[in-house]
Amino acid sequence: MNPDGALAGQVALVTGGSRGIGLAIAQCLGRLGARVSICARNAANLEESAAYLRGEGVEVLASPADVSSEDQIFAVVHKTQQALGPIDILVNNAGIGVFGPFHEQSAAQWDSILDTNLKSAFLASRAVAPEMIRRKTGHIINIASLAGKSTFANGALYCASKWGLLGLTGCMAEDLRAYGIRVSAICPGSVNTEFSPHAGKDVSKMLQPDDVAHAVAALVTQAPGSFISEVHLRPTQKP
User: Tens digit of pLDDT for each residue in 44-59?
Assistant: First the structure.
């Protein structure tokens, strides 16, 4: 499954690609032969990650960008198309989290989380869709969360963004499937990254970024006659 070269000639754009899950996805797709474009807000981290990927033999383009900005997302997509070619795979991975009782959160925090976790997926997907429709091919994968399937104390803003992302994913899939474009969501449980603290958890039993990357690889190498709408990813043992 997923042999080297399976994505040769294809172009992938990964948002939030400078660290954690996004970097693991970019590396995985690059190892499969894709030319990879990554974007993130922090230019220094982004260039460091790009250098690492190049050292792994991945052809990579790095573009600093705020994924919640329509203009900046459009610029990243345009730059990718000009430098690498038409985008075959979009992975909407950028995400942030703020946790605490909902009544103690500010409107600014709400806007920040919803803009980064949900609006950015809409903007990036809308930017790549016309060319995918024209070519009648493409994959759009949204990195959601099991927090989009359940609720928990102190998770209101984050859960709202991920529940919304799953709704967006399902509707996008229906809008685009007639054009041969497959839209999927991956819903991991807690992943061992710097994204949020994991006090009291055994990180060795948690999901790792490579686990999510493997799920992405499985989706984009699936035979063209079908697609997997949603993947729920859990660790074998509870951490």
Answer: 999 999 999 999 999 9
Which range has the worst mean pLDDT, 74-88, 131-145, 188-202, 206-220? 188-202
Q: Does 42 fall in a domain?
A: yes
Per-residue pLDDT at 5: 85
Q: What is the CATH number of the domain that holds 151?
A: 3.40.50.720
Tokens of 230: 């949603």
- Active-site amino acid positions: 158
pLDDT number for residue 239: 78
Instruction: Work out how many domains the chain is built from and give that number.
Output: 1
b/e map 155-174, b = 16+ CB within 10 Å: bbbbbbbbbbbbebbeebbe
Per-residue pLDDT tens for 67-81? 999 999 999 999 999
Contact 76, 13 (CB under 8 A): yes
User: Both tokens of residue 115?
Assistant: 């803009």
Query: Residue 141: enclosing H or E segment and its boundaries?
Result: strand 138-143
Question: Residue 180 domain-assigned?
Answer: yes
* Position 1 in a domain: no
Number of Cβ within 10 Å of residue 45's Cβ equals 15
pLDDT, the chain, mean:
95
Q: What is the pTM of this model?
A: 0.96
- Phi/psi-derived region of residue 5, left when phi > 0, alpha when psi is between -120 and 50, beta in every other case: left
Q: What single-letter amino acid sits at 211?
A: D
Residue type, 121: A
Instruction: Indicate whether 2 belongs to any domain.
Output: no
Instruction: For residue 160, give its domain range.
Output: 11-233
Q: What count of other Cβ atoms lies within 10 Å of the Cβ of residue 44? A: 9
